[in-house]
Each structure stands twice: as structure tokens, then as C-alpha cells.
Amino acid sequence: MKAFVLLLLSIVAFQAFAAESKRPNILFIYADDQSTKTVGCYPGSWPWVKTPNIDALAKNGIRFQAAYLGSWCMPSRATLLTGRHPHGIESMSMEGQYPGSTYDPKQCPFVPAEMRKQGYHTAHIGKWHTGTDSGWERDWDHQIVWNRPLHPENAGAYYQTQIMSVDGKEQTIEGYPADNYTQWSLDYIRGKNRDAAKPWYLWLCYGSIHGPSTPAKRHKGAYKDAEVPLPADIFPPREGKPKYVEEMQAWTKGDDGHPVAGKGGEGAGKGKKAARFDNWVRQVNECVPAIDEGVGQLVAALKETGQYDNTLIVYTADQGFAMGEHGFRIKLAPYDANYRSPFIVSMPSRFPTGKFCPQSVNATDVMATFLSIMGVKVPWPLHGRDFTSLLENPDAAWPHTCYYEHMGNEYGAKVSQTILTGATQANFQGVPLYSALVQDHFKLVHYLDGRSGEELYDLNADPEELNNLISDPTHAERIAKLREAMKAELKRTEAGFGEVVK
Q: Is the preceding omega at residue 209 within 30 degrees of 0, hence cis?
């Protein structure tokens, strides 16, 4: 009897070990300020854009219509770290010299800490933009990060010498940052700085293609002869757009009539001569190949080490970045040009390949899905929905809305206080705070400043969002349903300002 019990225990232990060994790794690749127009496999990209490795990832996986992960750097990352929208993240705030920020890890726990507790080895490499505390040894087993909030004097060094925190110890590191991040990630995949017995989660945060968008020397001039058409509404008039859009106009006409960088934007540099629109677009796109090369190297390393079949690879960016559309040269606004990110998922051993999913997801959905695939649970309510069913069948019906928001630099209860009291007219860097929702290829935007109103767009018929349908009586029923869906989402996620959506 004793021998039988021992045999049974051995079998159970072996099964547990086998189950643990099959838990997938996750390689989460995160670019910065990347428009879908800079990714070759996305319709609407410039025809001369070359991203062969990212495109190969889509060919060997699923390309989603869109991801809406955040309106700017910090909330995008905070949402992915917590699985909650900004209005549900307590204790986080901007503090000190920009991008100084802080949070209380007891009130604001991060998901990677739970991954660690439940058997995963966690690593973060690249840009950090969520509080001076980067979570080393609490959230991350291995970490090599450019901590911008901790070193505001070095916060603009996207393409220069960076002050890095390497497993808690500061180092000043030369070289092109995107290449550095790729190399450190390759080291990790090949077994350096990790426990080989554990499945792993690696969040690789590139700083490219964020302004000042400086390409690697080997890529400068790669697109110098590329033809750059002008967006339809780079200059006004723009019918149906709120007043703030005109106030954010970032382009003026040069002596030859071609747009040049003016006020109301970022990322075009501070040279003595205003940047031409076409030159700037080429320059931004020349930053992408360094990331694309990295993607190719990372996939190759997974294959070389026998980890490819058991690794979920996700490619996305923290948000998009308007490149002249609606007159912008900035993120923040609710339009796809500003906010929408590419989103590609690849794991051929488990999910279909060469597929397109017409659905859109948000950052909270991404984290809910990661946790489901990992078999990890967190002790707080997530705002997201697990979309594993869409990975298994990209054509499947999806009854849920994709909610996203812009809350400026406010989080948690402060969001409601700002909105309900009308503080600072509820805007951030010139863009009013808003709630937005996408369902069945229609987008509803509800501004929260009490004066900018609403917008409705048919993203299939009008992907550039030129025609605001909010006053079209033929869409009255649809608008009413989308408003109800938005109110339901705000109630479900315990937002304190849902009453402002009538």
C-alpha cells in the first residue's frame, strides 16, 4: 500500500511538473509612438515601408484591426501593469520635474509581482515611464531599464547615452538604445539572468520611434527618395471636429506651400529650420528598421533555443502618433491616427497563422488574456476581457465593446474629481479628457470637458475619420446604443464619472 501511495504521489508530481513545463513564455514587444502606417502589413501604410520581420510575425500569427492601449506613455504602461483603466488605478500621480511620478505599491500592485509568485520568471528591458520605483525584486526578477522618471535630466535621451538600472545598479551605457535593448533581450532568451526551470515573461519596451525620432546611422537616408502624400485634412477647414482640433494645428505652409512643423506638436526636432512634413515622415520611418531587425533576431533566438513553439509573441506600441492627420503632430487625441496601435500575436503551435481579426482590443484586455494563457490569477478585479477565443478563431463573434480613455495625468479617484468639478476645463496638453468606445466598426467619442461634445465615425467607410456622423439622424439609434454601452462599461469598471454620459 505504501509503495502504491508513493507511486501515485510520483505520478501526480510528474504531471504537475509536466504541466508547469508547458506553461508558455510570453515575449511582449512594445514600441513607442508607432502609427500603423509605419508597419508594412497594415493597410494604409506607405507603400515604400519595409518591415519584413514584423510582417513575417503577422504571416505566422494574427493581425488585429487595432489596439487602443493608452493616450500617452505613462497611462498606457500603468494600465498594462495593473490590468485597470487609469480611472481605476489609485495612488499614481505625476510628481516633481517631468516625467517624475510616483505610486504606492500597496495601493497599486502590479501584475508581474503575481506572475512571479505563481511560477513565472519576469523580466523588463528598455524604457520605464511609470513612477521612480521600477519594481526591481518586487515585480521583476531581471530588469535593465532606462528609468526616465528617476532621471529627468536624462529623460530626453531616446537615442543617446542612457542612465540604465541593471538589476538595481545604475550604469551609464553608450550605443544605439534599440540595439542595446535587443541584445539584452537576446541574452535573456538564451538563458542569461533567468531561471531555466521556469516559464518567462519578458516585456521589451523600445523607446523608438518616439521623437526626436533619430534613426540608427545604418538606416539614415533609407527612405530619402520616398514619396509622401499629404493627409487629406492636414490643414483646415475640418467639418464636424471640436474646436480644440483647430487650436492644436501643428503644421503651417512653407514658402513653397509644403507643410512645415509649427506649434502644437512634438517630435519634429528643434532645428534652426522648421522641418518639412515629408522629411519628417521619412525620418520617423527610418527609426523602424532597428526595431524590425530586433524582431527578426528575437524570433531566430527563440527557434535556435527550442523555445519558439512554447512562446507567445506579441508586437504592439504604447499608442499611435498622428503624422499630419487632422493637423496633429502628437498622440493624446481619440482618433485612430493618434491613438491606435498595431497589434500582432504569433504562436503557430497553438493559434492560427496568416489571419486577420477585425476586432479591436484595449490594454486591460491584453493583460487579462496574458494572465489567462499563463494560468495566473490576481487578487484584484481586472477591467479587461480575455480574448483567447479570438486567438483561437479570429473570425469569431465578439460581443464586447472596446473602451478606451484619455485622463491626462490623473488616476483613480482624482479622475472623477477633475471631471465632476470641471477643474482646468478637464483637458491635458490641449486635448480634452474623454471616454471612447469602438463596436462593430463604429467609434463614439464623448468629451468630458462639458463643451466639446461627441463624435461618431464609421471606421470601415471612413478610416481617416473625416466625417463626424454625430448629427446624422440616420444614426440616432446606433448613437443611443453606443452611449448605453459606454455607460455600462463605466459602471462595470466603477468609474465615478459615469453620470456625465447622458
A: yes
What letter does residue 266 receive in the DSSP assignment? -
316 Cβ neighbours under 8 A, 6+ residues apart = 29, 30, 31, 67, 69, 341, 342, 343, 344, 366
Cα separation, 135 vs 115, in Å, equals 13
What's the rounded Cα separation, in Å, for the pair 34 and 278?
17
Q: Are 317 and 33 in contact (CB under 8 A)?
A: yes
Residue 197 CB burial class (10 angstroms; 0-12, 13-18, ≥19): exposed
pLDDT of residue 111 exceeding 80, the answer is yes
Here the cell at position 169 is 545598479
155 CB contacts (<8 Å, ≥6 apart)? 98, 99, 148, 149
Residues 6+ apart with CB under 8 A from 220: 286
| pLDDT at residue 251, as a whole number | 97
Convert the pLDDT of each residue in 278-337 to its tens digit.
999 999 999 999 999 999 999 999 999 999 999 999 999 999 999 999 999 999 999 999
Which cell numbers hold the place of 269?
526636432
DSSP state for residue 439 in the 8-state scheme: E
- Domain ranges in the chain? 21-215+283-387, 402-497
The mean predicted confidence, pLDDT, of the chain is: 94
Residue in this structure with the C-alpha cell 526578477, named with its chain if needed: 141
Give ∠ CA 169-25-20 in degrees, rounded to 5. 110
Q: With 0.90 as the threshold, say if the pTM is over it.
A: yes
Q: Which residues contact 68 (CB under 8 A, 6 or more apart)?
A: 339, 340, 341, 360, 361, 362, 363, 402, 404, 436, 438
Q: Which CATH number fits domain 402-497: 3.90.1150.10, 3.10.129.10, 3.30.1120.10, 3.40.50.920?
A: 3.30.1120.10
Q: Give, in words, the CATH class of 21-215+283-387.
A: alpha beta
